[in-house]
Amino acid sequence: MATTQEFQRLESDIEDFEKVEHADMEVLLAGEPQLEFDDSELQQSASEELKEIEDEISMAAEVTEETDQQYFEPNFEEELGTPDENLPQDDDFMDVAEHGIVDFAGDDMYGRKVIVISACKLPSNKTFNHDRFLRYLMYTLDKYVENDYSLVYFHYGLRSSNKPPLSWLWQAYKMFDRRYKKNLKALYLVHPTNFIRILWNMFKPVISVKFGRKVMYVNYLNELKAHLHFDQLKIPRPVFDHDARMMEKYKRTAQPQSGAFYTERILSTQQFGIPLKQLQDANKGDPVPPVLHQITTYLEKEGLEIEGIFRRSAGATTIRETQRRIDEGQKVDFAAIADVNLAAVLFKKFLRELPEPLLTFELYDDIIIIEDLNKSDLKVAYVKELLNKLPRENYCMLKFISAFLQKVIERSDINKMTAVNLAIVFGPNLIWSQSQASLLAMGPINSFTRILLQDYVEIFSRTS
To answer: What contacts 429, CB < 8 A, 6 or more positions away?
Structure first.
């Protein structure tokens, strides 16, 4: 529970914002007087707002943290939540979306969806409806929260002219209930400042230790490369420029990726990150590499009745170590490891780390227009036509993967992984843009993958 002394200390922290003796932050803020709240705003507005919400925070801190439950609740629909009855069901929030504040950035290194929020794109707080933005943010996250996901927040560009009030932040924290927090696996705070740390102290009484471990401070953009597919991130130009200035100021070279799995030398036994044709040649003509045979064999025996298979991640260290062993040609016994989530993550990771997506860059533009077709039979015919354009090794591997996923779908009454749910998980791992991911492309990609799985027999029995 938050005590009066704690809140007094917090108010003192806010009032003494400029006096915080943190060398890195002093350099960061130098020359940018409006990057954060100015002095008067901190001393007056922030302190007054804090007094208004401190009782609520104190009361919330008394609530016992919920214990972990299984990933899926018994009532699947209830777990997914229901739309707000007060909102128009056809509201697409285009007036908010056009600012580009929130965007989708594919999957991270561990197969989790990545959502990016950029503070520099927030419009003036004199005209921007923050309550509507909050609803839009929930509307966007609702598409992903039933799976493990990660958030990236680019803090640079938050100014006194576009900042939301503290009361809004508290409202947002309350509205993002357990359904949103439960499957959030990582929150990357990029270019943090003292204000971020002040907010953290403010909410600390009601933030669980478990959630706190999900928060990662990222001082430089290159630190993201260890966890995310950097080329898929939509990083605003002002953020890039700010990062370059920081790197120059500190005279630091880019740090090596602590999460990098390979050296520049390609191992003869390597299976991840290798072109399909090269894998096929090394595998005596079989386009499906040994690691996928091993994973699918194990999952057929142990994973088909696991609720939410392919939706959960595994430990990052375990993923890295197992992948390293596979690429070095060491024997990996998935049955002995007995971790279904590990095998499932490596399955998706293999697809995601292909130099070119399984459905190829060439077909990307054709795939994302599939929803322009009105009739389902036309869509099936269109999918067949596109698959005929794939190289033989791509087609054979896609058929192998789709055949395995049919077995998962057959047990969907137990594992909850229908064709629709599998499409959400596998779509971004089968096809992605050669430039950057887009929220707008996710719907067509998922639709294409759903048709591929739902009409598997017709599609693969009649294509050559």
So the answer is: 107, 111, 348, 351, 352, 357
276: helix, strand or coil: helix
Tell me the per-residue pLDDT of 354-369, one tens digit each, with 9 for 90 and over: 999 999 999 999 999 9
CB 233 within 8 A of CB 109: no
- How do residues 100-143 score in pLDDT, each as one tens digit? 999 888 888 878 889 999 999 999 988 999 989 999 999 888 88
Question: Using CA atoms, how far apart are residues 47 and 200, in angstroms rounded to an integer?
Answer: 15
Give me 329's structure tokens.
Answer: 């040609």
Residue 361 carries which side chain, given as an amino acid letter? F
Q: How many CB atoms lie within 10 A of CB 191?
A: 23
DSSP string, 227-247: TB-GGG----HHHHHHHHHHH
Say if residues 327 and 261 touch (Cβ distance below 8 Å).
yes
Work out the burial of residue 140: count CB atoms within 10 Å of its CB; fewer than 13 is exposed, 13-18 middle, 19 or more buried: buried
Please give the distance of CA 430 from its chain centroid, rounded to a whole number: 16
| Spatial separation of the C-alpha atoms in residues 25 and 35, rounded to whole Å | 12
CA distance 111 to 262: 18
Cβ neighbours around 78 below 10 Å, total: 10
